[in-house]
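Job type: complex structure
Entries:
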Amino acid sequence: MPVCRDAKHYLRLFALLLLGFSSLAHATIFSVNNPRVHQIGNGYVLNAQIDYPLTPRVIEALHNGVPITFFQELKLVESFPILGRFWQWETKLWQTRLHYELRYHALSEQYVLKALETDDQQNFPHIEGALQALGNIQDLSLPPEYTQETADLLLLIRSGLDLSALPTPMRPGAMISSKWQLTSPWVRAVWP
Amino acid sequence: MALAFIKRLSSGTAPYFSLALLLLAMAWLLSAATQDSSKLNDLFLVIFGIGLLCLLLLAAILARSLYRLYRDFKRHEAGSRLTVRLVSLFVLLILVATTIVYGFSIHFLHRGINSWFDVKIEQALNDSLELSRTSFGIRMRTLLRQTRMMAGVLSELPDSELSHSLRDLNNLSGALEVSIWGMDGTPVASSIETPTIMVPDRPNDSIISQLLQGEDYIGLDPTENDDLRLRATVRIPRQSVLAEERMLNVLFPINDRLSDLGETVQAAYTDYKELSYLRKPLITVFTLSLSLIVFLTILVSIWFAVWISRRIVEPLQDLAEGTQAVASGNYNMQLTASGHDEIGFLVRSFNQMTQRLTQARNASQRSHRLLGQQTSYLTTVLGSLSSGVVTVDKRLYLHTANNASSKILGFNLQQRLESPLSKLAGLNRNMQTFCQMIENCAGRGLNWEQQIEMQKSKGNQTLICHGTRLPNEAGWVVVFEDITALLQAQRHAAWGEVARRLAHEIKNPLTPIQLSAERLQRKYGSLVPSDQSEGLNKLTDTIVQQVEAMKEMVNEFSEYARTPALQLQWHSIGQLIREVLTMYQSNPNHQFALLNSREDIQVRVDANRFRQVMHNLLKNAIEACEDADSPVDIVISYHPLENQQRQWLEIHIRDHGPGIPDDIIDTLFEPYATTKHKGTGLGLAIVKKIIEEHGGDVWAEAVEGLNTLIDFRYQQHFFAKNGQGGMGQQRTGKDGDDIVLRVPVGTEILDEDQETVIADMTEVGQRVLLARGGNGGFGNLHFKTATNQAPRRANPGQEGVERTIWLRLKLIADAGLLGLPNAGKSTFLAATSNARPKIADYPFTTLVPNLGVVGVDGAEFVVADIPGLIAGAHEGRGLGDLFLGHVERCAVLLHLVDGTAEQAFAERRRRKGRTGGQAAQRRQETASGQNRNVSRRRAH
């Protein structure tokens, strides 16, 4: 019946739009590079370098006084390969999320990077420096209780923008806009 | 599945209300979610998403409703137009109202939000920040110089004294921290004023890279506590090229007050900037929420409008369908009444109307049936009336006529309905009389009565007609009856009464007169002298005789007037008639023939009365023939007849008298109707009375009959007319009329030689062609062909045939009596049949052949008694032999031989002289016959 036909038509259009959006979202996102785990003593530490190619929209927001929050997510996963490499059973052992806030200090014209968990603050005169410092993970220690057996352990890292920390009016726009969807995919760290 | 869900949702009333509630909840949630610092902040998008979903769902449901409405409209379903109109009006109203509100809301939203932000404030803040920067800038330059100086001092010091010098410099400069670092970021020496801080603040890589590029760094350094410090990082000039590159990092404090002010300005500026930046997203969010709410509202309202319209129109739709049903003839529609508003009232009124319609129609059907019954009743009544009922409309056209009217008028009126009277009048004379009467009387008042006379074969017919004007100028109804019988009965009754009275009155004095006369004769006869006694006797005899005659007359009157009861018994009619005929055998000159006398016909009659009837009729016939001097030859016949589903016996008594004059034929059967100069004139009246008492009818017919060839004695040449010649213009000439010679039954037609028989006319109505007319000629038209359109030849006609014929009439008899004269043939005939031939003892008493009907064992045959044959009859002696022709047709010839023949011859000669007395003898016989009749009558 015609209503049915119309409904299907509209659903198809909607799906196409979503697809379009999602395709646009793959423009430039954060990327985790060279995540490595080193063993120091009995524990393991992680070194990684994360790139933060911010879009002009984000930078504009930053310059307009909007604090931008980044998150870095780490996940320890034990995976049991079932059916070979095609399907693996994963159990999450440990997960942590680190938040960093980047603000622009208008008076000093400095970019203030603050680790929200530790309240450590760093000031940078240029944004690149701030982003570089942000993306530079050095000797991040992993919880020893989970890393006893490293047989099937997987460490996954990803990073992105914490859109829920944005001011409310911006959130709907940020959530559907491709300019704000910059979260990197999960990257597996290399074990020693 | 989704469509089924949508379908289920879009029907019924519950979904409407639940959706409306959902809409309200949605609106509240959205408004709460857009408020700042609310828990629902995070859920904003979720709520918005749900809202969008609801919007889509609602749009689908509404689309289906609208599509259904459109489909109904296209199909011209009852009520669809009104629904569409209502829905359009509602939608227009909703859209207009909502659009206005929406527009104004958006406008106010923009205006409201934008009003928070003033350009001047922004400028002020910018300027404040600039001012702050400038004020710090001055201090920064000073401190940079100081740091450079410190670096210069330190560059000359060896490493061992660095930390000591740093402490001094720290105290002197009043810095928070002084530290020396290598260019790779390794710490060399440091001096920190605050004892709690162990680790010096390392300048970050961008500062280092800046130093590497040869530029000293001085800048504000915001701390975690929202304090401000100044950081100066300069390169320490190295003494030698081999020495390590080092930098000096000094952190200077800023006046608390200045710091606070700076922070305040910075905070205000940042906040304002952030707010100003968030203006657009805020407007967008508000607009989206508002739009969602507005669209949801519009959709729900439209849907509700559709539903309301349908509900309002539904009873109207039922009403429209009901009206259509009533228009198409179905009056039994009853709608379900609902609601107490005007539409409910309309529905109830409609139901009442259909009820009344049904009742009215049923009543009308009933009355129609009744009317049909009445009409058939009336038709039956009219049909069985004996009076004629005729209706005529106002244009004088025949409208209806019942069976009796056709019968009375003798004309089938029922085939001529709707014809004008003028046309009917032209059909025959009776109809003319009738129609003219109606036309004349139509101009009169309401009722009229008229009596008219009609001519019928039986006589005159009197009709009495009543006319009445029909109501509403519909015409006239004429009721008429044949009162001929009634009039006659009236006359009869009157006569009867008169007769009875008269008889009674006259009879009384008659007896004394007679007795007195007889006594006179007896008493005074002896006293009178003998020569006068004969005269006295004659006179008294005359008195007595005349008195007797008068008594006789009076008795006849009494008889006529009297009506004793009939004694009906079954009799054989043939036997009855023959009994009557035997009494007439005395007169040999009177011939009676009874034809077709079947013995098996029985009638229920009073025998005496019937005999009286026969006597009267026969007497009449005889007297009529004698008066006209024509031979008395009466033929009686009877046969059964079926008329009007009743069995009748028709008796014919036919004579060859002079006929009945036209003027008395009507009143023939009335008393005193007579052409005789003697007699009472009651004979036929009595006959009629008796016949009518038996339930029969009697009438007289004047019939022409031929029994002689006398017509041909005086005219012997007959010419048929010539035909007409052909005429111009392709007209064919008319054939000449045929000529018909009428001959009696029994005539033989002979050719000129008197021997060859051309035809023998033995049956009534037989026709034979004697001479054919000439052949007509052919004109040139006859010879026209396809190739020759105007031929030039013609054929003349041929002469007709001329012929001479002989006509010979032979009497038809089954048996012939032959023999010598006076052999006793007539005697034999008289003895065996009812004929009464002249019998005498001289020969040749029979001069003409006599016919007699002989009945033996139920069979009858006609015997012809012919004049005697003598020797030499062929030469013309005696009566000749010409009369022998009459016995030619006889099947049987009886030769009668007298045993005493010699004496017969002698006897003849002796009685020759007496032939002259034959006439006297005949007369005497006639007289005696009459006397016998008289005496017979008296005996009755």
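Summary: The first strand of chain A starts at residue 31 and ends at 40. The CA atoms of residues 110 and 125 of chain A lie 5 Å apart.
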